[in-house]
Amino acid sequence: xxxxxxxxxxxxxxxxxxxxxxxxxxxxxxxxxxxxxxxxxxxxxxxxxxxxxxxxxxxxxxxxxxxxxxxxxxxxxxxxxxxxxxxxxxxxxxxxxxxxxxxxxxxxxxxxxxxxxxxxxxxxxxxxxxxxxxxxxxxxxxxxxxxxxxxxxxxxxxxxxxxxxxxxxxxxxxxxxxxxxxxxxxxxxxxxxxxxxxxxxxxxxxxxxxxxxxxxxxxxxxxxxxxxxxxxxxxxxxxxxxxxxxxxxxxxxxxxxxxxxxxxxxxxxxxxxxxxxxxxxxxxxxxxxxxxxxxxxxxxxxxxx
Length: 305
What we know:
Elements: H1 3-16, H2 18-53, E1 58-62, H3 65-70, H4 81-93, E2 97-103, H5 105-116, E3 133-138, H6 144-151, E4 157-162, H7 163-206, H8 208-216, H9 221-256, H10 261-264, H11 273-302
Antiparallel strand pairs: 1-3, 1-4, 2-3
Main location: membrane
Function: Part of the ABC transporter FtsEX involved in cellular division.
Organism: Streptomyces chartreusis NRRL 3882
């Protein structure tokens, strides 16, 4: 097969169906940009999980005098020194515990003032109203229930709280947004495939005379189909290239410059450029193979060779 002939046929086909080719390029670009974005979103959520789950603490809040009057869990009174020593000793014996940090009422009051000093409630609080607590770093954050089972309901313990539960709600929201993006991506892929099939059909119909002559002179089926398949592949590859450009531009302007989220949201450990660059070959390969396969199967039905 002469490469010059195939290339000329590709150019003719793209020019003849310029409007539909443009629609294919745009739909492929948008769908694959969403595809790449959903992959990066998954990486971002996993990175955040690894970063934050490693920092979460389990807190054992101890009863104070105020709790003894109002909280059923502290009906036996404020925590005693012996109870605190026993709790600390039991924590030190547990294999799941990595470190234990004690926070006094004065320290809790100081931290509260630092974080919520502007709150109207802060001015009415006193250190004796704050709760003493043990902050526990676990070797495996998933083992929170071991601590909760061992200390919930114990004398002197007001409650056992796991910061991981707060993060789980955030990650559920992020995962929900990611699945929504994937649903839109799937819809856009279906639209792109339909456009590719229709473009191939129109192109094959507009050149039915040429293909008929090629059949009569003994041209092989692949020789006749190749220009149509490559037209779809070229249009898809252009769309894939645009999708890659969208992702690179978004990463550059949203994270590093422009909005500069990396500087404004320092608590979030954003994924790096390596995560973005590793997705580009997959996007380009998909943009090339998806239209080519769609065109191949469409031609089997609409181009009788």
